[in-house]
Every structure is written in structure tokens, then in C-alpha cells.
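Researcher: For the record, we're logging two predictions in this thread. I'll number them. Prediction 1 follows.
Model: Prediction 1, sequence and structure:
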Amino acid sequence: MPNSKPGRRSLLLGATALAVATTAKRAKAAPLVIRLGWATMPGHLIPVLFQNPAQAGLKHYGTSYTVETTLFRGSSPQLTAVAGGELDMFASAASTLALGVTNAQLDLQAVSDIIQDGVAGWHSDSFLVHADSSIKTIKDLKGKRIGINAIGSAADTMMRALLLRNGLQDRRDYSTIQAAFPALPSLLEKREVDCAIVLQPALREVLKTGQYRVLFQGRDVFGASEAVFLAGRQSWLEQHRAPALDFMEDWVRSRRWLMDPANRTAAIGIVADFMHLPPAQLDYLFTKDDYYRDPWSVPNVPGIQKPIDAAVQIGVLKQGIEVAPKHVDLSFVDEAKKRIKATA
């Protein structure tokens, strides 16, 4: 017969309560795992930002949060993952943000700069054709095949906008072929596409051969724009505000460390090691041959609005959004700047 003495029962209840309290305390103290999406390196930098917490001077990694990063082909597939609860924040293009709000009814907000395209004096995304191609102008793309990474991406939106300005409509006048960024130079070389976007560092290597030339760039479409930015759901950001603020402080610290000329050799080495490339192939990084990145990670909000408005005009988006003030939250980068300056 079970022992039912009051003293024994009290002891067991006390031990159970202590175990529950200890487990709850440990669960509360466990760092939040923040799931991040990205689509290209070295542009986005996301998979290397948290690789060396001590070296980059990160203050909170491993304490209040950790990160898991996942590679996608573009921003559109990341949006699907966010809608499905598989990602917390992602590298978004302007049209993707608008689609998420209008089609998926997601409470998305832009929170940080990732890369800006076409800023005066800096790099701009480039679409290439063969040097011996008969394609000399945008209108010559009629009947041609154009390689892009994903429908609805920043590259896709800029391409469609420029072609429509020149009287060319998708499917009616040209066809698009989707492939991952690293595969596009090969498709162009094999002439499986007639024109394709080629990103750095492949862009420099391809142009060095003399077999290709730039037909148009992102700056020809939007001028200076926020090509890709970090976005997340407002509900998630509010629910996890404290660790999200810590994350953003470290995000800004890491980006600033990588962009600091004093750390240039080490920074290039980190990216080169991740990409399995010789550092010399990445010597353009963090120079004006690279994308512009805001030193405090502040997104160019008008530069998000311009591609959205253009996407509506060309029919890529059925409905646009006003980015500011409802779909942008600068409080995270503002707090990061305040914290970093306070400890400088």
C-alpha cells in the first residue's frame, strides 16, 4: 500500500515544485532563436554577421538570442516561409513587402537596411548580354529570354519596370527564366538566356573576359533605391521586443565592424572563407564597387516606396501600400545607434 504519511507527501510536493520552478527559470533564460532568411552573398552578409561574436564585439549573442540562417532563391520564397511561421525576419524586396501586406495580410514592417542600389558613386545591379549580341537597346529584348532569380524579387521588378517603359510586356514580348543567382552566369554563357542579371563578385569576373557587356543597371530604373532590407512581422517584433532590440544592436555592430576600413583584411577573409573563394576575388567589398550600406543600418524609406509604386504601374502588384509610417519601424536601429554611441 502506498505511503501516505503527511511528511513524505509534503517533501514530494516540495521537490516537484522546486523542479518545476527550476525548469521554468531555465526556459525563461534560454536565448530566443531568431530565424533569418537570406538570398545572396556577399551582398546580404547575413550568414556571416554572427559567426564571430567576440571579434565583432557583439554584446548579446548567445545570451538573449541566437540566430539560424536559411538560404532562399529570392525574397518571394522567404515571404512564403514567413507566412508559414518558418522565418522570423527576412531579406525583403520592396514588392515582396507589399505582396505580404496586401495578399497574405501579414503585419510586415521594414526594420533595417541591407543593401541600397544605385546610390551615386556606388555599385548598381547589372543585366548583361553577350558582347556580340544584336541586343543594343532595351527594345531589342523583344522576343528574348531574360534570366532573373525569382518572380517578384528586386531584380525582377526593376527589369519589368524598365522594359514596360520601353513598351515590352512579360509573356507577350519576352520570357523570363528563373534560376539561383550563381547559376545565371552559366545560363548566359550557354546562351540559354539572352540577358541576365549577374551579381558581384561574378560580375567582375565575367566582364573581365570581354565577352559580355552591361545592357542596363538598377540605377537606370529607380535611381537610388533600397534594394533589400530586413523585415519582420509587427506581432513578432512586439512579442519579442527585448531580444529583438539586443539582436538589432549586435546586427548594427557587426555590420559596422565589417565595413570598418581598419578591419578590411579580416572582414574580406571571413566572407571569402564562407564563400570558399580566394580573398583577392572579393577585394571590391566595402568599396564603391560594392553596394552602399548605411553605416547605422537605416533603410532608405523613399527608396522602398519607389519600386512599389513602379510595380503597381507595371502590373506586378495589383495593389500598392504606403510604406511610411505603418510598414516601417526605425525604433530598432535608432535604439541600436543610441546604445552603441553610449558605449563608444
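Researcher: Logged. Prediction 2.
Model: Prediction 2, sequence and structure:
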Amino acid sequence: MKIAIAQISPHFGQWKANMDKHEKYLELAIQNKVKLLIFPEMSLTGYALKDQTPTLAVTLQDEKLKQLASYSQDLDFVAGFPELIPGEGYAISSAYFHKGYLLHVHRKVYLPINGMFDDLKDFRRGESIKAFHAGPWKLGVLICRDLWHMDAVQALALQKAHMIIAPSAVPLRSIGAQGPNIHGFMERTVRSYSEHHTMYFAFANRVGFEEGVCFYGGSMISDPFGRILAQASFLDEELITADISMNEIHRRIANLSLKHEEDPSLLLSAYEEEVLP
């Protein structure tokens, strides 16, 4: 199966302009025979919305999302937006669209509150991390800071996900001889998760400037052996593709069956011991 990442620079606060950009990349992906296209975190609105959040947030039943879902007849895709949860507040969400409808939504669990980030001021935390089926593939979605937490990745690994999809908005902080310094950390993280948990990993980062912050890109797709199959450039909009196969997962399991040796009860017992008096 061919998958792709649309490394885009969203138009800040402009839903219609971003819909047009999504359509453009969906058409490009279809031309390239892509079966799954992944957009970055908050791809439909931009990231640091602050007081614009109430205006731009949508419920899962909103007509805008129904219109977006209609584009998934020819390929699956993941797009990000601020979600209004009636009576509860707002969430940073990414939805998986499949065969004309919204199949799954993940709400960002780990909301950063350090440095330039203050997500908890405007958004509430997601409360679950669930794998789901799309055809023969079992998938999971983590949003940006989620993937920095091993327990979030472990939750999907224990559910035997074949691939983790990670829409992100990781900023540029400093540049070294090899490019953005943060990229080395992200590459090591993606490769180690893939190799250790016998899964594919798609890190879909955005680019562009927003409120004085630069997002660096460097999106990448890794395989169950920890190899980078495709990597985007820094700072530029781009579509990258990679072919993934269930056979590679089976080959990795035959080579090193860590995935089937894991015992979730050990993890549960560790938490139980923590709370006992």
C-alpha cells in the first residue's frame, strides 16, 4: 500500500483556504496512487488560534467535516482541526476519513505548557488512545506531544497497531551543521519506536511561520526495522510517499518477536503497586 504525507503550511485561521489546499494535495495523492494521505496537526486552521478557537472549532457533526469526508471515496486521509465538544470545551483533534465518512478521531492527550506553548489554556486533554481498523490495517493516531511520551506509544503497541500516524507541529528552535537540531531527536524517536514495537511510523510535521514561530518540516516514514523509507525536506511544502507492506511486519516478527512476547499484565501490576498504600 502506498501512503503519503502532505507537509503543508496551513493558512492561519482560514478554513476555506485550507480546504482548498487539502483538495490540491488529495488530488495530487490520487494521481500518485496513494491509498492513505496524512496532513499535519491542526492542518485545517493553523495552530496557535488562541481567541479564534471558538470561531473555528467544529463538532464532529459539522457540515464542514461532512464535506471533507466526501473526499475520502478514493483514498483514506487524516486531517487536523480544533474540535468543539458540546458542554465540555475544545480539543486538538485529528480525524481519519474512510470511504466517505469519519472513521476515527483522536484528541490530543498530552498538551504542552512549556516555552512557546500553552495548549491547556484553550484546550482540554483527550482521555483515551485507541487503535482502530481501516481495512486489514490496525492503526493508531498520536498528535505531536503525545508521541514524546512512551506510555502513549506503548498503549498502541499493546493494542497491536501496525502503524502509528503522528500529525505534528514541531517548531524550529536552533540549527546545527546537519540542519534543525530537533530533527535528530525526532528521527531517533521515530526509528526506535518502529524497530522496538515492530510497526510503521508516519511523522507528519508542518512547515511555515505562524505568530513568529517557524515550523521546520522534516516529515518521515519508517518501517518495522527502523529504516527511514521517506523523508521530507526542511521548511518547504512537499508530498512524500512510501510503500508499506504487512509482509515486512511479519518478516520482522519472525526475525525478532518482541511484539508477541510483551505481557500487558506487568504494566498493569506496576501501576497497581504505585497506588497501593
